[in-house]
Amino acid sequence: MGVRKKSRRKISVDDKEYIWYVEVDYDSPYHILNIVSNDKQLVLSCPIDTETPYLISKGKLFQNKDTNGNWNRYLLPFNIPEIVTPSFVAKIITWAMQDINTQIIAWNGKNIPI
């Protein structure tokens, strides 16, 4: 089964299609940027307006490696803009697919500690 596309935006990065959308997270005070590859291997969530910019990897693939199946949180090496644009979404996808050292962070159940 494919990814739901109604009311969501498409983006192509390195000849691969992704769907992205922003929605309210009813469990927190944040809006969440969600990015999903068409094959559902890469699934990312990025809380907007947090003190510390971070990304949650929920899929089977992150930085071209298989994940452990858990939701893992990573510090973003750049800030999140006030308005989410396609170029920012492409920047996140490119970063999430590069094989670089990332800083994984623990979640305390409320917010990301730094």
Task: Give the helix/strand layout.
Elements: E1 9-13, E2 16-24, E3 31-37, E4 43-48, E5 54-57, E6 61-62, E7 65-66, E8 72-75, H1 86-97, E9 104-105
Antiparallel strand pairs: 1-2, 2-3, 3-4, 4-5, 5-8, 6-7, 8-9
Helix content: 10-25%
Structurally, how many domains make up the residues? 1
Radius of gyration: 13 Å
**Class based on secondary structure composition and strand pairing:** mainly beta
Taking the sheet with the most strands, its summary is:
7 strands, antiparallel
Give the percentage of residues in beta strands. Answer: 35-45%
Tally of alpha and pi helices: 1
Total strands: the figure is: 9
Mean pLDDT over the full residue set? 86
Widest β-sheet, arrangement of strands: 1-2-3-4-5-8-9
Q: Which descriptor suits the 3D outline?
A: globular
Q: Would you kindly provide a written description of the structure presented here, covering whatever features stand out?
A:
It is a single chain. The model has no long low-confidence stretch (mean pLDDT 86). The strands form two sheets. The chain has a seven-stranded antiparallel beta sheet. It has one helix at residues 86-97; strands at residues 9-13, 16-24, 31-37, 43-48, 54-57, 61-62, 65-66, 72-75, 104-105. It has one domain (9-105). With 114 residues, it is mainly beta. It is globular. Strand 1 and strand 2 (16-24) form a beta hairpin. The chain is 11% helix and 36% strand. It has one helix and nine strands.
